[in-house]
Specification:
OB fold (Dihydrolipoamide Acetyltransferase, E2P); Dihydrolipoamide Transferase; four-stranded antiparallel beta sheet; 8 helices; 26 strands; about 25% strand
Amino acid sequence: MAEVITMPRLSDTMEEGTVASWLKQVGDKVREGDILAEIETDKATMEFESFYEGTLLHIGIKEGETAKVDALLAIIGKEGEDISPLLQGKAPKAKSDVQPKEMPQANDNGEAPSVNALPEGVQIITMPRLSDTMEEGTVASWLKKEGDSIAEGDILAEIETDKATMEFESFYSGTLLKIGIPEGGTAKVDALLAIIGPKGTDVSGVSLHAASGTPKKEMPTETSVEAKTEVQVQKAPVPTEKPKAAKDGGRIFVSPLAKKLAEERGISLSNVQGTGEHGRIVKRDIENYQPSSVTATDYVPKGQEIFEEVPNSQMRKTIAKRLAESKFTAPHYYLTIELDMDNAIASRNAINSDPDVKVSFNDMVVKACAMALRKHPKVNSHWDGDVTKIAKHIHLGVAVAVDDGLLVPVLKFADQMSFSQIGATVKELAGKARNKKLTPDEMQGSTFTVSNLGMFGIKEFTSIINQPNSAILSVGAIIQKPVVKNGAITIGNTMTVTLACDHRTVDGATGAQFLQTLRNYIENPVTMFV
């Protein structure tokens, strides 16, 4: 019997993946353990192996395409096996049968009404999940009121989540028939937020619990198992008139799925020619779009402003999301000290006099941090709502710059490593990071992070905490400058480091004491051998 293979979740934060390359083609024999494809996640490009044997009968996601986790990736079965019933069984029968993303809650009988039971053209909108940790939201303000006309893309309300206050736009056009949660009201994710439909429609018969937290039934994903089928999970009415071209300033009509794909790929809808009904932009238009590139040698008329649009990779989008969450949820504060590096330089030169040993200043900083954390465990912690979790183990994240942003491989039990072990491990992990070969396990579990820009000549900087850590150390360059030693001015070597702390878990005095210990280790490296 044929086996369906879906887009795997290759990391704890992965929400979608891109097929970088297929190593097997339709018709190829596949053995258990064979590498089927290379998949780009939000953190790395990873090989994906088959757990089945047979013939590759169907490829659901082409090279270069992006799809959500659990979307159809491939089908493996016996050569010549008929898989059409399997495809038809997974694909929605018709657009009218596809329920919208926002599902109605339980009715008075405890059952969720089907979409077909709703008045024609009526769309149910529920409290959206606007962050991965959001469980409930508060309507900060309504920008529309009952009876107002709504166009697809209009901002309906501002919703306060557990992390920020965000604008929430409508995926539908029509009239705002009902508001389920008033301004200032709080409700669980999936509670009734609003109802949109044709003007004058009676929705009194739609019995929903506005503040219910009843979970939704599992719905089909936006990606159909058959590449030729376009499933619009969030439906919008088709315009009755052909829309004006974007260059004429008219509104652009676009399916929600096409709009989402365009945002993910950094494509401006004003540059896309719609081939759907009445000129509507649909999924295939985004997939087939070929941008006209502008290079440095192209002639640019005087006074004309031109932007080059570069699609954001899965990695960069996830980095942006995580950094924004950290900056707006953790109350950062910063502590800066200047270190005397003369003894560290002399110690490093002595250690590296052995031709078989190569220790960097970064290795010394990482070791010093690991040992200082052992003496100040409150810095080796993270905030977890009702409790602060203090890690008894020390796993140090080391920030590594890559083409698409920043990755943080983790040195497990760094306090138990020697200088040489730290150096070798950092070198190995950094190489994997730049080649996108890091495994999820090699990027998980950090309890503290070190970010070093000294090799770029940066004297001093601050970093955003790598959550769930409570702190991150920013390391600057070693510089020569006049310093005072024993009452006399002399030329010395100094290095500035800045500790960013989460004030929920690390008080100012705690952070300062940690830096005092760190100073002692780095300015007197021999103490790290005791």
